[in-house]
Design a protein that fits this description.
Strand order of the largest sheet: 5-6-8-7-9-10-11-12
Largest sheet: 8 strands, mixed
Strand content: 5-15%
Order of helices and strands: HHHEEEEHEEHEHEHEHEHHHHHHEHEHH
Radius of gyration: 20 Å
Number of strands: 12
Helix content: 25-40%
Mean pLDDT: 81
Low-confidence stretches: 1-79
Length: about 400
């Protein structure tokens, strides 16, 4: 899940209603929000992937640990023509009718000099996380488009895509949407790049035995399920499970759900949530807040929110990854409070390169749940060489 991961992880919602108790506990609002799930951290020994710890023959990598700390630049790439403006994204986006009844918003973008270069390279499809949209990739699209045709999609229920009232959202729905988009719109081998729940939708799509167009996977802090109820083997989730079920019950009461949703999508609350999940606080600007807030005001957004938070979590990546034989790049921000690297999903992916030679993993220091927007330069440093290697393999 991407930007509004705090909304999708239902226990977090209640902190907005419980702020009055913080003065008694001595906790700040954001501390209360995350205190049950934030992992213990040893700042003197952060997990990193050595950039030369890569076997070019089989594409595998190993996790190494470094006690040294080299801080990544705090600035966000901007003002140099590498960021695609939100207004330009809106103007260039197109509509595709899915199943003859749902309008799906998407963007196709390329700056590549040679049509032959594009013909020989796979396309790239960017899939956002929960609460986000195409614009969440604004710091990545132009960089990728120098060598590839880049597609980005608003999943059903998000961005400028339809938000049908009463629709029951599932991971399987989004995976099928991705596969149909590849078949009907892209129509060529494609690398799927997803963040959080978007990553999981990509994994589910790629694991479909009938699909033929997925060329590779890039997973940015892959979610364990559509909501936190999937990760029941994490002690943090077990601790919160009664609260999660209570939240589900409350959200099924329309009046309560509407009041919570209205409170959560207020600018200052959104900003606080984003600051909590981003390592680079400079990336949390007014534009980012508006990227999230705008679609949350659409008709049907509340229904999507409630359905996703209270619905079945769906399959988790531990079940799905054994079916994946194509090249996979995993990028993981080590300051992610929702899918922490020491949680069950993070640990699974950390061990995966030693078990599957098609998987390459980098743990990115000082980065939160949305690496591509948090510190885009760190993601591009790993992603671009991997894509180049994939294109020539």
């Amino acid at each position: 899940m991407g930007m509004l991961c705090a909304l999708g992880h239902s226990a977090g919602i209640l902190h907005l209603q419980l702020k009055a108790s913080q003065s008694q506990s001595g906790l700040k609002s954001r501390d209360f929000f995350f205190s049950p799930i934030i992992r213990a951290r040893n700042d003197s020994k952060k997990p990193l992937i050595s950039s030369n710890a890569y076997n070019s023959k089989n594409g595998s990598s190993v996790v190494v640990y470094s006690s040294s700390s080299t801080a990544a630049p705090s600035s966000v790439t901007s003002g140099d023509g590498t960021v695609l403006e939100v207004e330009e994204i809106k103007q260039q986006s197109q509509k595709w009718q899915w199943k003859g009844q749902y309008s799906i918003n998407y963007l196709v973008y390329s700056d590549a000099d040679s049509s032959q270069q594009l013909h020989n390279s796979p396309a790239i499809l960017l899939v956002h996380g929960f609460g986000a949209s195409i614009a969440h990739w604004r710091r990545n699209i132009k960089i990728l488009a120098k060598n590839y045709t880049v597609y980005a999609i608003d999943l059903l229920g998000f961005g400028a895509s339809d938000k049908p009232p009463g629709f029951s959202y599932t991971m399987e729905t989004w995976a099928q949407l991705i596969l149909d988009f590849l078949d009907e719109v892209v129509q060529k081998p494609t690398v799927l790049v997803g963040n959080s729940v978007g990553s999981l939708a990509c994994v589910l799509a790629a694991s479909d035995s009938s699909q033929t167009l997925v060329r590779g996977l890039v997973l940015l802090n892959c979610a364990g399920g559509m909501n936190n109820k999937a990760i029941v083997d994490d002690w943090r989730i077990k601790l919160l499970l009664p609260l999660l079920w209570l939240v589900d019950f409350l959200l099924k009461q329309r009046g309560i759900a509407s009041a919570i949703f209205e409170r959560v999508k207020q600018r200052e609350n959104l900003r606080n949530i984003l600051l909590s999940v981003y390592g680079n606080k400079d990336s949390v600007d007014e534009e980012l807040v508006e990227i999230i807030r705008g679609p949350a005001n659409d008709e049907g957004a509340l229904d999507a929110f409630v359905s996703i938070v209270t619905g079945p979590p769906g399959p988790n990546p531990v079940q799905l990854m054994p079916r994946i034989s194509m090249p996979v790049l995993v990028l993981w921000g080590d300051e992610d409070p929702f899918t922490p690297i020491d949680g069950p999903v993070g640990k699974y992916f950390s061990a995966l390169p030693s078990q599957k030679t098609n998987v390459k993993l980098f743990v990115l220091q000082g980065i939160g749940h949305c690496p591509h927007d948090d510190r885009p330069e760190s993601v591009h440093e790993k992603l671009l060489p991997w894509l180049a290697h994939l294109s020539t393999a």
